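Changelog-linked ticket: FE2/S2 (inorganic) cluster example.
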Amino acid sequence: MYKIVTKRILNPTVVLMDIEAPLIAKKAEPGQFIILRVDSEGERIPLTIADFDREKGTVTIIFQVVGKTTKALSLLNENDAICDFVGPLGVASHVEGLKRVAVVGGGVGSAIAYPIAKKLHQLGAKVDVIIGFRNKDLVILEDEFKAVSDNLFVMTDDGSHGEKGLVTQALENQIKLGNEYDEVITIGPLIMMKFVCEVTKRYNIKTTVSMNPIMIDGTGMCGGCRLTVGGETKFACVDGPDFDGHLVDFDEAIARSSTYKEFEEHALNHYCN
Ligand code: FES
């Protein structure tokens, strides 16, 4: 069993938990993920590692309450325990050697962007962070990003915090101002990553996206997480989750992401009632 050491509500639907998992904390790197089961009857869900503390032996997860499992997880409290917590899985983000990077996060995806920005900052890269949310109540990790970025741009759809507009506009503005990024790293909703890639393609800037498709085993056996990248089938759990965004078939990934929507809604309603 894996103890919940800390629980913090980041916004009305997003929760942070530090989980006691020393063996995973020892090996974890930014970009990797874990798979957990809340209890022995539960489904397996992948969550990207949002942070880790090797000394304390904890791994931080940040999740949005979107379905039955995340709802059940959100109802647990400090000192409660999670049944299974497996990882670190996936290939760590390649950040070595980068000098000038824009990290673009959207919604809860910003939580996943954070450890990557932090690592880049620790390695001495100049990091611009652009994070976007629907409104000010949904903004997360602003102080944390401030501490690890050279420039932080917070965008909201309604202008209630930071600047009004989309992350793609902020990114394009920075590119037009003459910022020559070695790479753009983007994590968030599929549709946001697709449009970030369309901007960077125009300026020929290498772009890495972090894909989070449906996963089951997380070890390359079931094929549930398959994606088409550069015309080839790839498994996000073992080949990713990071991929060259200019090669990802986003339309297919978007269509596949809603395959079980009806079942997911039914399970949540059944659980809540
Ligand atoms: Fe089964 Fe990736 S989750 S192959």
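Closing comment: Example verified and attached. The chain has three domains: 2-89, 95-203, 211-273. The first strand starts at residue 2 and ends at 11.
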